Structure formats: C-alpha cells, structure tokens
Amino acid sequence: MDKIYKELTAKIEARDALVGVIGLGYVGLPLAMEFGRAGFTVLGFDTNPQLVERFNASDCYIGQVDEGLFTRLIGDGHMSATGDMARLGEQNVLCICVPTPLDKHREPDMTFIVNTCKTLAEHLRSGQLVILESTTYPGTTRELIKPLLEGSGQSVGEDFFLAYSPERIDPGNKDVKLRQIPKVVGGMTERCTNLARVLYSAVFDEVYEVSSPEVAEMSKLLENIFRSVNIALVNEMKMLADRMGLDIWEIILAAATKPFGFQPFYPGPGLGGHCIPIDPFYLTWKARQYDFPTRFIELAGQINTSMPDYVVSRTMDALNERRICLNGSRILVLGVAYKPNIDDMRESPAVRIMEILQEHGAVVDYNDPYIPRIADQRQTDLRKESIRLSEKTLGEYSAVIIVTDHSDYDFQWIVENSRLVIDTRNATREVEGYEDKIVRA
Fold first, then answer.
1. Would you call 117 a catalytic residue per the annotation?
2. How far is it, in rounded angstroms, from Cα 57 to Cα 239?
3. d(CA 92, CA 127)
4. Ordered DSSP codes for 202-249
5. CA separation for the pair 276, 15 (Å, rounded)
6. To 10 degrees, the CA torsion angle through 263, 267, 268, 272?
7. Using CA of residue 65, residue 68, residue 71, residue 74, what is the dihedral sign?
8. Which of 41, 185, 254, 291 is deepest in the core (most CB within 10 A)?
C-alpha cells in the first residue's frame, strides 16, 4: 500500500499522471482544460459519440471556455476524447463529472453516477485515484460509490483511492478564473485526501481539506441552498411589493446601502442552472432518511419553483387590462439561457414559462443570441428555433417577456418597438418615456 501511494504521489507531482475526465459537459470540459493547462495529459470520456467527435476535431461546443486554449491543448496532444471505456484502466486519476438531475418526483436521479461507477469497476486497477465532482447528497461517495468500486475486489485506501471534491464553476463569470476558485477536498482516508490535495494543488491556486467526503458534499449543498433561500426571500418580497405598488428593485438598492449585515439578492422569473434549483432537493431527500423535516429549505424551493407561474399570471393580468386574451395571443420570450451571456439553458425558468403559456393557448416564440435552437433538453419536449428580432417582428407580438437580460439586447429599442413588455429582470430600468408599456414581474 505504501509503495502504491508513493508512486502515485510522485507521478502527480511530476505531472506524469494520466488524468481521465468522465463527462465532457459544462463541468468536465473546463476541468479537463485546467489539467491540460497545468501540463497533464488528459483523456476525456463521454458516451455521446457526436460530442467526442467534435472534441477531437477542436470544435469547441461550450461557449464559456477559452476556445484558443481548447484548440491548442488538443493540437499539442495534451487533450483528447474517447468513448472507449476500456481505456479507463489506463488512467492514473479519474474525475467523475456526470449529471446528477432530479427525477419526475424531484428526488435524486443517480443513474449517471451508478452507470459510470459500474463501468469504472470493470476497469479499475491498483494505484488509481478516483474523485467525484458531481453535486450530490452527503453520503454518496461512501454509501454508493465505494461499494460499487470495491465490487471489483479492490479496497479503498489500499488498492485505489477515493475522494470527493465539488465543482464550483460559475458559467459566464469572466472576473474569476476556474483555477482561482478554492478547491474543497475530502477523501475516504487520510491518504485519499492527501492525493486529492496534491492533484488539485497542481491546478488550483488554493486547496481546502476537510475531514470527510460527507463534509465536502454538504459544503456544496450549503453554498447553493444559501443562495436558493435568499433568492426565495427576495422573490416573495417582490410579489408582496408588487401587491403594495412598490418597486422591489428600488427597495433592494436602498437596503444595500447598509455597510454591514446585508447582502443583496435579486428577484427573477425562477431559478436556473444545474445547482441552485436542484441542490436543495438533494438535501431534503437525504434529510428524510434522518426523519428531519427541512421546512425552511422546502419552502424556499416551493417559492422559487412557483415563479414561472407568477410571471405568466402577471402577463395575463397585463393583457386583460388591454382587453387581450392570452389564449390565441402571440408571445415572444427574450432569453432562454438560465443567466446572461451564456449558452447554458439547464433548468432555465424560460422553459417552464413557455410551457405554461402554451398550456394557456398562447403561441410562443423565443429569441436568444446564444441558443439558436431548443432541442434534446432533459426537462422539456419543446422544439423551437430562435427567431430574428426586427422592428416588424417585435410589433407582431401581444407581449414580449424578458426572461434573460443578455447584454446583447438593446432594451430601449425593444421597448420602443413592442406593444407590451413584461420585465422579469429589471432590464428596462434605464428605458424612459414608455412606462405605460412596461410591466415588471
């Protein structure tokens, strides 16, 4: 055991370790690039043959990464991709970055992790370090992954090493590089933690060790539940402020002048992205196993998931005031990415807003400069293509709903040429002279 540990440590420190990244999506691809940048040879694994082909052809399919670096790392041989899972056994390090969605009952769907670990167990060999990065509930590494991998006949901490390190990627954030975000690591044994620290120290500016995988798993949930709860609070405040005829955005700006004890959060049409809409439900599901009701977290989830309905309700009210029925009306949704200036629409509230509008009989189109078409999304059967914006097309819709405030949009021009604008992001705050056209929701 001592020899295996020392040899793997030496390989990692010398950048001679072969690094495999399983799952080449929004988490796996940027991580693979950071390993490649640090001098490691990286092999990406994915079950999608089209994605593997694009990867190896230097066709960068995620807009938020450095395309020049992506091309260079592939060109100089630091990165490649494969769908051949037999090659898992060639790697010294394996980082698991597969999706962890919710099922239709809003409970954890561990299918991707289970299938990945079953396949990995078939090829696991002595001296490998396995790290889970996918967001999940506390206990996943110990209770689910460890038994699956030890089914190969090898033991954690003796034959192979196992740790958890949550991904902390913030798509679209140009101010903070991935390597500047501290990396939390928790291993199954002390040596597992040490190896994970040595690995990530070669890539990230700071590594923070915790006592167990469960602590690392829970820390990621706390980060995002903190945001979920505070967003729910401000969303509820927004609905109350609307009822009282007050501007929640002005209220937040006033509160934010306090130099201590307050952190501004902003309302919106609902939560998007893989983490904040999903993480709270991972913890509430796990808490039920301990007979512990997480009422505060569940209430926040209920408020946030209800926001698309609120947006549609406000749209219906605004149309009714103009003697227009939603049933049969043409509605244009601006922005389907879950946050500005990215091409990621995972769990985007725009999807649910469009579905509800269609359920009420509206004819719905969308525009998004980053997402030319909606197709093959896990959470929807919508099949649409982004329309081109023009003065003529804007005027053809009964209402335009701003769901994502991309910086590409000229909101003054949009309001001028639209009949009615439903603003869920305070995007029209600087538009003047058209107050009668704007409804904040």
1. no
2. 49
3. 7
4. TTSS-EEE-SSHHHHHHHHHHHHHHHHHHHHHHHHHHHHHHHHT--HH
5. 34
6. 40
7. negative
8. 185
Roughly what angle, to the nearest 10 degrees, separates helices 349-359 and 295-321? 50
- The rounded average pLDDT for each run of 10 residues, N- to C-terminus, in the chain (441 residues) is 91 97 96 97 97 96 91 95 97 97 88 97 97 96 97 94 95 89 98 98 98 98 95 96 96 97 95 84 92 94 95 97 96 96 92 96 97 76 92 97 97 97 97 93 93
Residue 232 φ then ψ, to 5°:
-60, -40
Catalytic residue from among 60, 97, 117, 275: 275
Name every residue whose Cβ is closer than 8 Å to that of residue 110 and which is 6 or more positions away in sequence: 100, 136, 140, 144
CB 427 within 8 Å of CB 414:
no
Residue 212 tokens, joined: 């167990």
For the range 97-100, what are the long-range contacts, defined as Cβ-Cβ under 8 Å and sequence gap of 24 or more? 97/21, 97/22, 97/23, 97/24, 97/25, 97/27, 97/28, 97/31, 97/133, 97/134, 97/167, 98/22, 98/23, 98/134, 99/23, 99/25, 99/134, 99/274, 99/378, 100/134, 100/135, 100/136, 100/278, 100/282
Q: Edge to edge, what strands does the sheet with 399-402 contain?
A: 363-367, 330-334, 399-402, 421-423, 438-440
Strands 373-374 and 384-385: antiparallel
The amino acid present at 377, given as its one-letter code, is Q
Radius of gyration of the chain (CA): 24
Domains and CATH numbers, the chain: 2-217 (3.40.50.720), 246-440 (3.40.50.720)
Q: How far apart are CA 421 and CA 319, in angstroms?
A: 10
Which amino acid, residue 355?
A: E
Dump pLDDT digits (tens) for 238-263: 999 999 999 999 999 999 999 999 99
Amino acid identity, position 9: T
